[in-house]
Input
Amino acid sequence: SQTIHQWPATLVQPVGSPLSLECTVEGTSNPNLYWYRQAAGRGLQLLFYSVGIGQISSEVPQNLSASRPQDRQFILSSKKLLLSDSGFYLCAWSGEDFQETQYFGPGTRLLVL
Amino acid sequence: TQLLEQSPQFLSIQEGENLTVYCNSSSVFSSLQWYRQEPGEGPVLLVTVVTGGEVKKLKRLTFQFGDARKDSSLHITAAQPGDTGLYLCAGAIGNQFYFGTGTSLTVIP
Output
């Protein structure tokens, strides 16, 4: 069966510090991968998606970047965090057999102080 | 611009009542998903509907996809406190998924 992991679960970082959030998927090959940000109790904002290694599409120009160094690994980064980067970050995957559905990781709560 | 509009945004009802949540758009989707999310956790998939007019039932939950594949509804019968959570709809177009604004449901015992 397929599983998706995210870490860390919670992160508190000072303004201006770097960021690296990691997401990995098991049990599938060549998944489509996604990073979302969610404000409290609200819908999801798509940040980046990737259909393959090294292929990243950005939906919202901002202080963040994404990379896909391996088929089942997706990383969200920032060189210098802003207060407005605080939020709940979710990674998701969809695949050839599940093209119509996304499955989400447990999320990372980021607080920038 | 929000592609999918959900209503209501907030809903507080007594245990045992029925409710319907709506997800509307002017765009056509190849499929539509409903998720339920608890605080601090990732959304959990409830159902995927693919065919226009399709109706799926999951115990006390009934999901319908509009004939034109532009809208969907979620109906809960005899709501229970365990149904409390944030309900999200998401429509798929190609490799991208567009999320609704969410409906926060509270079921009071």
